[in-house]
Amino acid sequence: MNRFVTQWAVLVGLPIATFLLSSPVLAQKATATDQDELIQEWVADSSNSLIEVYRWFHSHPELSHHEKETAKRLADLLTKAGYEVSSNIGGHGIVAILKNGHGPTVMFRTDLDALPVTEATELVYASQKKVTLEDGTASGVMHACGHDIHMTNVVGVARFMAEHKELWHGTLMIIGQPAEEKGEGAKMMLDDKLFERFPKPDYALALHVDPTMPTGTVGYRSGYAMANVDSVDIIVKGKGGHGAYPQMTIDPIVQAAQLIVDLQTIVSREVAPSDPAVITVGAIHGGTKHNVIGDTCHLQLTVRSYGDKVRQQLLDAIKRKADATAESFRAEKPEITVKEGTPSLFNDEKLTWSVVKTLNESLGKDNVVPVDPSMGGEDFSRYGLAGVPIFMFRLGSVDAKRLARFEQLGQKPPSLHSPLFYPDAERCLETGVTASTTALLYLFDRKPDHE
């Protein structure tokens, strides 16, 4: 920034950004570089307070549908920042609104919930929380998927936007969404008339930490970025009896084993190699003891795809293979239950490329990188299906030196959902808040596509 401009602003007692934008002559000199410097200075000055927020969220995790205290904490922070906050939207969801004159409505979403994972990071602020799960087993609770970073990021974004209203006009809508880990929270909020009770946004943004990317970087993918997620339960039916006399039975475990092998040919031989797809048998339960052949065997599958056509092709093929295997064993047809999970996440192409362009200018092209599509699921996709252009980008979360050390040791860094995963929070948040505010300021300066 021009040193004379900075010194004169200080002399007359005005914030630099306000001075630049209020002066008819100097406003013309206020460039994107000035804005970037303003954001970077603010983020650096706010780092300590944001780390305190992050450590509270990290050490107070709550499972899906139980995010009561998490939601209250986030609501209190956003209320203090000047937002009008509504709670208990679709469960423990919150909506925070900041109106700032005429302009677009832009939504930024964070998720609230943690996972039933016992933390093993040995951080001084590690979660010590224990719960009893629905099946009666004991478990720790941990933010092993980075939602603590996501929440802290929106707190930083919310504070910056509230403190710099001279830089933008419109309505900022912050969403704190429950039950993302179960793929249910977005639907719950939409079913609770989210976009009827509150403004329907012109654009919606979100980010997600990435344990394979170094801090200081963000990743993007235009179009399909994450997968359809479906769960399939198959009850293979047989005829029980003594293990010494298999000829008197129809063995459901052997039948299930044959089916597991047959299922693998669906992706490898029926789906085009250009169409990503996954069928994984995650669990098999059958039998009671060594010498007893049971009546049934239960298979649990996760099925991943992108488009609707391949999604239906996979589900149809699973049923066909299961029925055919049963017939070959002269067994009763299996019982098949399909539970549709999250739909595939499609990043709006026009929105993605326009935001990427402004991030290139802010962070530098070397720090804004294309990433491969993922077969993971994300219910942020549902806001896109509700008619809102969406873009979720990835946030590098592990220091480059730490990643290099893993590579030197021939190891992979801990993945999301690992009890050993932790982000290098300070640098991660610096980049997250910088990228998020830069994207928001750009979108508030842009006329919505429908106009």
TrEMBL record:
Pfam families: M20_dimer (PF07687), Peptidase_M20 (PF01546). It comes from the Bacteria. Gene3D superfamilies: 3.30.70.360, Zn peptidases (3.40.630.10). Mn(2+) binds at residues 145, 147, 181, 208, 417. Residues 228-327 form the Peptidase M20 dimerisation domain. One of its GO terms (biological process) is diaminopimelate biosynthetic process. Keywords: Hydrolase, Manganese, Metal-binding, Signal. GO terms for molecular function: metal ion binding; N-acetyldiaminopimelate deacetylase activity. The Mn(2+) ion enhances activity. This is Amidohydrolase. It comes from Blastopirellula marina.
